[in-house]
Amino acid sequence: MATAPTEIKVTSEIAAEHGLTAEEYARVKQILGREPNITELGIFSVMWSEHCSYKSSKVHLKRLPTRGKLVVQGPGENAGVVDIGDGLVAAFKIESHNHPSYVEPFQGATTGVGGILRDIFTMGARPVAALDSLRFGPIVAGNGVSEEEAAKNRRILDGVIRGVAHYGNCFGVPTVGGEVGFEPCYSQNPLVNVLALGIAKKEDLFFAKARGTGNPVIYVGAKTGRDGIHGASLLASAEFTEESKQKRPNVQVGDPFMEKLLLEACLEAMQTGAVVAIQDMGAAGLTCSTTEMASRGGTGIEIDLAKVPQRESGMTPYEIMLSESQERMLLVAEDGREREVLDVFKKWGLDAVVVGEVTEGGLLRVRDRDKLAAEIPAHPLAEEGPVYRRPIAQPSLRKEPATDWFSFAADGTNLTNNFAKLLASPAIASKRWITQQYDTSVRTNTLAGPGASDAAVIRIKDPETGVVKRALALATDGNGRWCQLNPRVGAMHAVAEAARNVAASGARPMAATNCLNFGSPEKPEVMWQFSEAIDGLTVACNELGTPITGGNVSFYNETLGRSIYPTPVIGVLGILEDASRVLKIGFRDEGDLIVLLDGAVRVSGAQHAAPLLDARREFSSSEYSKTISGIVAGEPPAIDLAAEKRLQECLVALAANGAVRSAHDISDGGIAVTLAESCFASPTGPQQAAPQLGANVKLEGTTLPAEYALFGESGARAVVTVAPTSLAAVLETARQYGVTAHQIGQVIGSDAFRIEYKESAVIDTSVAKLYDVWAHSLERTLKVS
Amino acid sequence: MKFGVVVFPGSNCDHDAFYAIRNILKKPVEFIWHQSEDLANCDAIILPGGFSYGDYLRTGAIARFSPVMKSVGKFAKSGGTVLGVCNGFQILLEAGLLPGAMMRNSGLRFICRHVHIRVEQTDTPFTNAAMKGQVLKVPIAHSDGNYTCDDSTLADLEKNRQVVFRYTSADGSDDAAGNPNGSTANIAGICNRERNVAGLMPHPERAVESALDSADGLVIFRSMVEALVGAAKATA
């Protein structure tokens, strides 16, 4: 017969197996004043894991701006909260579920969605939208990618998409946006970041602070099983090796139906007024929820594990405390009113059991009937974990000879074929094959779903009357390639683009959330990337008025010693004062004028008049350079945050006065892709086969080559369309905001797509041809797998 | 006149139906809990979309046994107006209130997008305000919408004019490409022989405002109101 784990004598070797260093273990003994037992060791190891304790990132995260006029709750709670007017608040946060999604793509993705949704409704907010920001390895063979690797990446993508879809669709939250990117560095380590947004009345917000000695602690939701034990500490806090597949049992299993019941029951229970505090059981399950509620409330908590609903028999205290079974919540009720709470959960057919009570003295005390299984001071456990100022080392300067940079085609070259190739690349191609698997319209709030506007736009119904006034816009962004080349500038671009996307939908950016995906913090060059990215985020969020209200850090994104590109993903939330003023990307009518807005102050008549060598350097980091030449080098485009701010304010003003008919920012693939996508999103004909509007554009000549003009990715720019009669008003608004505005062409009624540069047609084709490669590329690639 | 929207555990379009009736149609509406056998004197019952009881066994297979379905069955048998949308349609099939069965979509994936459906019959309480052949642009969101039935049932459905909605192309012509899920005879929705019970896979409650891309679904709810008003007058 096996020895009961509680009887295992803890040694420094066992502590090391739990991921605790010698110093950390010494600190454990110091806090306890004795040796821990095995359950206590397990509790410390998860609470002090990188995932739960932020021990490597804390010193850097402090630099982020987190305050703002509209911020109701910054980082530190289950989600950030901002004021959206009329007594309502929005709770939102983005989180990663990267490692589980590689080990078991479907379940990894489902539980990623489940976790972030719980964070939102734990705050008392009803989830109204989800976005996912995904990164995969290449799904097309070639360029050094084998068919085997591409096929594996397609399977991972398929599993993740099905997982996101399954959970969100069943739960009943629309998945309305996000992005999907592909780079070789994500082959062994995909990124699955999910953002969720919820709405609540301000007075109905809930927090995870236990209080009131003697108040009952109630366990609700799914039963506890042996799944996901050490998910946070082992899976999320260590890099991958060949043995990682053996960690599949560490991946949790999600049940969206259970979560839906939990949502409804929790919101209903909160309405009784008998709930004092509530916390979901996510990473580190019962351990984390009890410890954090006690620590935040300055109280203790005592629970009896024998009362915890269990899925299987014979579970040890160690297993129960460390289980990461999904769809569970812990709440504190007012003493004497627990019946009201229990009745609500009974109505919804959920387990709800009083498992303990709030105590004085700040101790987390875990009993197993009459045996004491663990006794740890909650505050030191939650807040006095190790904090590391990890060594930082800037990698040696890249020495790239100019010959390694992208070489522009000769003047007058017809670039139509390259353009079609760019439109067909998975990064640029239509994501409809993916987004069509998501329920995008449930809850009937989606004013702009995937691809309709630069941001996802959700209207806000008053929770009681259903009356609509405002809308919220959300966009995520994060260019890992740029962050690899320059983490500081890359991170600034992530904020700038997400905010620009929000503004291009007509909404004023108001706050941000971040998901910081990096390699091992034990590598000085990764910590350098991290620190640089934080500095970039700080500057950009300050400048653009989008404080960071929450998010998470995901380290150890590396496999067999290779780190991913540093990938900070930023979600920006914005508000539209009038829900009927949403800007979409699609051209609307024949004859509308196409106007290029540029926030940067450039020398008149010579936009982007950078020296050729600078242009080559910058262009080498573009999507076009990567797709057409396989070159990833140089630097991201220089960033001008003041210019971004001017452009964004201008877009918001143009939306508010209803002067423009469409708006689309310039980003991946440059202005050529922007114009094409606006054609693709124009009204379709009776057969819905192809879009009906084309574009005739003449770009102003500079000394630079056509490829730079067409596909360059400098920021602070957007394309808007304007009815001829409104042109003067639009130009005047742009002038007021210090934004350069030039009419560059016209929307035409035929399906011709023509761009002229330096007196020659550099792209000359039909919208239908471009649309065909763009619209069907992804499904052609993915259907064969 | 009052509408009732049934709430099963796992229903997730209940609020959308409620909103469409209260805020757009501006008619009285209330939720009916699945444990209740009391239909609260409602004049029309809507079984909303979602994943009742998680739909882990087979869509609608568990919901048909819930207490409220006993009453809905009696209500339907006595001529009451019942509309099932998406999961509600699946439940009506499982409950035997409509003939046929549902299979996984032919593409084996969840699909959410706008489709076009043609109104095939206007002498039902769900389509009397529509024109025969009218094309409605309405979203679908399901993975099990592949309606199927045996040949004799299909022949009966056609003979008794029970196929109320069919997937078509945008201009209303028969077109296999317009059928998103592989359903038999491009069927999107049917009614019972008595015409008082209908189910459809597309979500009319999600197409009641132009801000949401289409208000075409409204005609179905307007039809229900007209039918109920007519019935009230007839008995008055």
Q: Would you summarize the structure shown here?
A:
The complex is a heterodimer of chains A (785) and B (236). Chain A is 35% helix and 24% strand.
Strand order of the largest sheet of chain A: 8-10-7-11-9-12-13
Largest sheet of chain B: 9 strands, mixed
Strand percentage of chain A lies at 15-25%
CATH topology (level 3) name of the domain at 583-785 in chain A: Phosphoribosyl-aminoimidazole Synthetase, Chain A, domain 2
The CATH class of the domain at 583-785 in chain A is identified as: Alpha Beta
What structural class results from the helix and strand content of chain A? alpha+beta
* CATH homologous superfamily grouping of the domain at 583-785 in chain A: PurM-like C-terminal domain
- Structural class label of chain B: alpha/beta
Write out the CATH superfamily name of chain B. Answer: Class I glutamine amidotransferase (GATase) domain
Low-confidence stretches of chain B: none
The CATH topology name of chain B reads Rossmann fold
Helices of chain A, by number, come to 26
> What percent of residues of chain B adopt helix (DSSP H or I)?
10-25%
Q: Please state the overall shape of chain A, judged from the principal axes of the Cα atoms.
A: globular
- Give the quaternary arrangement of the chains: heterodimer
Supply the CATH architecture of chain B: 3-Layer(aba) Sandwich
Number of helices of chain B: 5
CATH architectural designation of the domain at 583-785 in chain A: Alpha-Beta Complex
**Cα-atom radius of gyration of chain B:** 16 Å
Helices and strands of chain B, in order, run as: EHEEHEHEEEEHEEEH
Architecture blueprint of SSEs:
The complex is a heterodimer of chains A (785) and B (236).
Chain A: H1 12-17, H2 22-32, H3 38-47, H4 50-53, H5 58-61, E1 71-73, E2 80-85, E3 88-96, H6 98-103, H7 105-122, E4 126-136, H8 147-171, E5 175-182, E6 191-201, E7 216-221, H9 231-235, H10 256-271, E8 275-280, H11 285-297, E9 300-304, H12 317-322, E10 328-333, H13 338-347, E11 352-359, E12 363-368, E13 371-377, H14 378-383, H15 416-424, H16 432-435, E14 446-448, E15 456-461, E16 468-477, H17 480-485, H18 487-504, E17 508-517, H19 524-544, E18 548-554, E19 558-559, E20 562-563, E21 567-576, E22 593-598, H20 612-619, H21 623-629, H22 641-656, E23 662-665, H23 670-680, E24 694-699, H24 706-711, E25 717-722, H25 727-736, E26 740-748, E27 752-757, E28 760-766, H26 767-783
Helix pairs in contact in A: 7-8, 7-10, 8-10, 10-13, 15-26, 18-19, 18-22, 22-25
Chain B: E1 3-7, H1 14-25, E2 29-33, E3 44-47, H2 67-77, E4 81-85, H3 87-94, E5 101-103, E6 111-119, E7 135-142, E8 146-148, H4 151-159, E9 163-168, E10 187-191, E11 197-200, H5 218-235
Parallel strand pairs in B: 1-2, 1-3, 3-4, 4-11
Antiparallel strand pairs in B: 5-8, 6-7, 6-9, 9-10, 10-11
